[in-house]
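To: structure subgroup
Subject: Chain for Friday's discussion

All,

I'm putting the inputs and outputs inline so they're searchable in the archive.
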Amino acid sequence: MDAWDVCDLCIECCIKGDEIASIRSRREGQTRIEDSQQQQHIRSLFTRIARRYDHVNRVISLGQDQRWRRQAVALLDLPPDGILLDVATGTGDVALIAHERYPSAHIVGVDLTPAMVHQAARKTDRGAEQLRWALSDGLSLAFSDNTFDAVISAFMIRNVPDIAPAFAEQRRVVSPGGRVVCLEMTWPSRFPMSWLFPLYFFGWAALVGHLLSGDREAYQYLPRSVRQFLAPEAVVATMQSVGWREVTCSMRMGGTVAIYTGIK
């Protein structure tokens, strides 16, 4: 099998090189947990929009989404030759930005949806030996304890059935002293954004997303998922409850984007 082929939970097929030989799959002896109804829905949704995902994101975010990713990556504070896990990597934008900022780091991007992972692999220079992609569920990461120096996710956490196990899994695979960074959208609570944001999200973003992707349901789900998600204070409290220390939350774009950090 080519190193760039992707197989379900087959981390050893996707990660090559002695420099990250310490990364091991926990596949053997592990009973696979069946997808919840929400996970099945998310996988189906992102499979349908994978090919147009990047283009739609740039348009509906008015070109700001990559800037938010860069701001999140800047908070990782990776050591030289550090090992980074990008959970719910999607089409790989965060991992690729991290590779630019930390060129000596070893980066693994995982996602629940095969179509998204294949899009990430297509964007990767085959000479970039320090970037690898694999399939894995963010609620049951296929890695040993204390494997990574840092873990990051972008626009993932609101899509999981329960954020506490997701943050606990991220903490499990990070080494002591390692860092978590979570980039996520949040519903603004202060005027005028509390009034403008619904018009933008349920109007402009949903319409443009539908027109560009051809998938109305996917871009109706997007604003609903943000509207129903926890307030930043609740996210911080949940992170603390599973053991993350020194948890912070910094807001962007008038209180519509949050970047959470913590230390193990």
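Points worth raising on Friday:
The longest strand covers residues 174-185.
Confidence is low (pLDDT under 50) at residues 1-35.

D.
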